[in-house]
């Protein structure tokens, strides 16, 4: 069993994990990070496992997991739930692929609108602004 020294104040924990103190407090309210007991007349102290936990949360966020999903992953963090964790990751991957598809559609529409703006001549309504008012009508939807 690893002995851990709990010597960090919340400010030092925040600095070590490269997060704000309010982020730590928020994660505690959400149940993603435990709040240590305050010793009588003292201040709460944190240790390296708290840094590890914050690193886990921040890394999962960078991969697109929501805080609710991260909570689910943390509940599976005992080494015996790889299949369940994998299923959550597969769902996240599907979500990311759907977002990429939507972004590609948006890119195509914006490219078309920018082209129409560049081709715009004279003192008439801007094609981009008009399209936003009318609902986007692209070459492919005409």
Automatic annotation (TrEMBL):
<keyword id="KW-0238">DNA-binding</keyword>
<keyword id="KW-0475">Mercuric resistance</keyword>
<protein>
    <recommendedName>
        <fullName>Mercuric resistance operon regulatory protein</fullName>
    </recommendedName>
</protein>
<dbReference type="InterPro" id="IPR011794">
    <property type="entry name" value="MerR"/>
</dbReference>
<keyword id="KW-0479">Metal-binding</keyword>
<dbReference type="InterPro" id="IPR000551">
    <property type="entry name" value="MerR-type_HTH_dom"/>
</dbReference>
<dbReference type="GO" id="GO:0003677">
    <property type="term" value="F:DNA binding"/>
</dbReference>
<dbReference type="GO" id="GO:0045340">
    <property type="term" value="F:mercury ion binding"/>
</dbReference>
<keyword id="KW-0804">Transcription</keyword>
<dbReference type="GO" id="GO:0046689">
    <property type="term" value="P:response to mercury ion"/>
</dbReference>
<dbReference type="InterPro" id="IPR047057">
    <property type="entry name" value="MerR_fam"/>
</dbReference>
<keyword id="KW-0805">Transcription regulation</keyword>
<feature type="domain" description="HTH merR-type">
    <location>
        <begin position="7"/>
        <end position="76"/>
    </location>
</feature>
<comment type="function">
    <text>Mediates the mercuric-dependent induction of mercury resistance operon. In the absence of mercury MerR represses transcription by binding tightly to the mer operator region; when mercury is present the dimeric complex binds a single ion and becomes a potent transcriptional activator, while remaining bound to the mer site.</text>
</comment>
<dbReference type="Pfam" id="PF13411">
    <property type="entry name" value="MerR_1"/>
</dbReference>
<dbReference type="GO" id="GO:0003700">
    <property type="term" value="F:DNA-binding transcription factor activity"/>
</dbReference>
<dbReference type="InterPro" id="IPR009061">
    <property type="entry name" value="DNA-bd_dom_put_sf"/>
</dbReference>
<keyword id="KW-0678">Repressor</keyword>
<keyword id="KW-0476">Mercury</keyword>
<keyword id="KW-0010">Activator</keyword>
């Amino acid at each position: 069993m690893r002995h851990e020294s709990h010597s960090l104040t919340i400010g030092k924990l925040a600095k070590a994990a490269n997060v704000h103190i309010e982020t730590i407090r928020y994660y505690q309210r959400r149940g993603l990070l435990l709040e240590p007991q305050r010793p009588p007349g003292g201040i709460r102290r944190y240790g390296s496992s708290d840094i590890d936990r914050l690193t886990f949360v921040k890394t999962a966020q960078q991969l697109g997991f929501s805080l609710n999903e991260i909570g689910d992953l943390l509940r599976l963090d005992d080494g015996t739930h790889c299949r369940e964790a994998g299923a959550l990751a597969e769902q996240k991957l599907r979500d990311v692929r759907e977002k990429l598809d939507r972004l590609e559609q948006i890119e195509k529409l914006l490219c078309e609108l920018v082209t129409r703006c560049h081709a715009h001549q004279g003192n008439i309504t801007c094609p981009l602004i008009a399209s936003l008012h009318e609902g986007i009508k692209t070459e492919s939807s005409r």
